[in-house]
Amino acid sequence: MALTHLLGYPRIGERRELKFALESFWQGGSDAAALQQVGARLRHAAWLRQQQAGLGLLSAGDFAFYDPMLDHALMFGAIPPRFTAERCDRLATAFALARGTPGQPALEMTKWFDTNYHYLKPELHAGQDFHLDAHAYLAQVADAQALGSPVKPVLIGPLSFLWLAKSTDGADRLALWPALTACYAELLRSLADAGVEWVQIDEPILALDLDPAWRDAFAPAYAALAGTRPKLLLATYFDDVTHHLDTITALPVQGLHVDAVRAPWQLAAAADRLGAQRVLSVGIVDGRNIWRTDLRRALATLQPLHERFGERLWLAPSCSLAHVPLSLRHETRLDPQIKRWLAFADEKLGELSTLQRALDEGEDAVREALAESDAALASRRHSRLVTHPYVAKRLQQLTPAMERRTSAYPVRAERQRAALQLPLLPTTTIGSFPQTPEIRADRAAWRRGELGAYDYLQRMREEIRHAIQQQESLGLDVLVHGEAERSDMVDYFAEHLFGFALTENGWVQSYGSRCVKPPVIYGDVHRPDAITVDTARYAQSLTDKPVKGMLTGPVTMLQWSFVRDDQPRELTARQLALAIRDEVADLEKAGIGVIQIDEPAFREGLPLKRRDWPPYLHWAVQAFKLAACCVADETQVHTHMCYSEFNDILPAIAAMDADVITIETSRSNMELLDGFGSFAYPNEIGPGVYDIHSPRVPSQQEMERLLERACEVVDPRRLWVNPDCGLKTRRWPETNAALSHMVQAAKTLRERL
Ligand code: GLN
Ligand code: ZN
Prior knowledge:
- The chain has about 750 residues and is an alpha/beta fold.
- About 45% of the residues lie in helices and about 10% in strands.
- The protein has 27 helices and 21 strands.
- The strands form six sheets. An eight-stranded parallel sheet has the order 1-12-11-10-9-8-6-2. A five-stranded parallel sheet has the order 17-18-19-20-21. The protein has a two-stranded antiparallel sheet with strand order 3-4.
- Helix 8 links the parallel strand 8 (about 200) and strand 9 (about 230-235).
- It is globular and about 75 Å long.
- The model has no long low-confidence stretch (mean pLDDT about 95).
- The structure holds glutamine and zinc ion.
């Protein structure tokens, strides 16, 4: 019997129950008992689904109210000393660390590998003392066991935990492994006592290029866990681990999970190296994307392994299913043809059980399921929804000249100076202005059909007029329309482009109670009609100052969507680029002289291994340039990036050749800009002078100081003044106050230069 299991199940709930329960608890609308009850119900529902799908093991311990890394930190007693005052009950402590308190900022949040999930970085220090408090964890395992199936607890492994944490005093995190693994050993013993046979221990860092010191710590750290009785399934995902197979096969673990979707080629090496005792868990169903599995192809991969491994072959999704939406059940508006091509978490469980039965009982036992899989795949392959001859033809006609501006930056800069007549240190914003409750209510009413299209348009125009008036009276130099009509920078364009489908309920947890609903790119992307031109033209008609057109870039559209798996990402990026290019050209034709193409997700598209960076950067830069380089020298192209470390990819950012880049820097006190200075970034740059993530209004002096620092690093003639990011999450009063200080700071500095 091939055994089926999963690495983790979506936590947020079929109807985002966790989100609503958390938010109601935080707002004082319900108590901790109610929240605990929702948690228990969600876990129970997840186990029942696994049981109904016939999985051989139920996964437990993968649930968290806010974040699993945070729960591990609490379970091992790694609560930062700065939070000692907040140590009360478990839930309150967790939320204090996750959300901050009046006296203490929250733990830092960062992306989980190359996903869009953000985890909380545990804070560690030299001589960190760990102690095990596994009460809640063990209780969850016991709850799962009460359902009568074998239960496999899930843990983040000690080395990944340390690697993903941060040290607050510069101490070496790796040096903490002996103390930490002692806690893991104690926990494993308790699990064994509770009757657990298998524990899944995730070490996703094995997919990275690890420093030798980290790699070499695996042997002693896992030796410290040996002999604790439960068998260990070492889980890796998101990429190839063949470069670490020597390390892995020397560990005292009884099984290995590998990602056979992202890196199918590693299966052969892993199978050869595992020996005659160990389990091979094959991540055969895509845990990162929403496409139905090609069951025939999967079987062709699995059959020879099944012959060799027999019961030691396990089947699973490639990674935790927390990265995909929970179920297709609630999608009522998706085109039925497209819906047939998809599999969300619950449908993926069904695929696992079909694969398992096909292996164990023969393909005849699942004839219907295989036939349906074949038919669905064939319909996708041949669908006229997917391929569009017009797009194919345009792609064939691409020329290198389309990815180049007519003149080099210095020439363009002269012409733009003449055309735009901007002062030194021009001031601008990143695009969005506050999304007020009124705007949201109007959009909701329009979507429900209660507000007509014409009335909705008028309402958005009122908002644009208001935003333009505010910016004029603040004295900003390059204005924006404020993005009132956009609920989300990717969704808005996805709605207007061909090749995209939007789901009703395809939510994926982003962090804590926050979820995103990535659109699905299923077909060749193209733009049937202009999207933003009317809005930009309207905004420009209200002012003599230049209005900046506002677009989302091809890499960000790609990165924040579920992407086709039937063609390379880079090809989809090029299609997106062409669609955006059409929009750029139309904006210019409509008299818009400044156009911003946002690429906040540019850096997060970087592959996990450095060896894969150059090809990615190459096509990502190309896609941006294809989108941008259709305008005259006089037209100024901006781009914006945030949440990023840029220093290691500066050559690529320079190669994008935007006339102006605005970046987030205020939280790092402009340190980020140093890289741009020493690299001698050639074009104009707007380092953010204030953090938009907080309602705090910074003083004029504060921003002046930051600008002075910036002037030391970058020639003031190439410097812009702007906030860190868009202002959609802020309210108008603080926005006006902060921007007025910002404009004053720029004016004061101008006089001094
Ligand atoms: N133009 C977008 C805005 O201002 C940019 C958002 C982002 O960088 N994430 O909201
Ligand atoms: Zn931003």
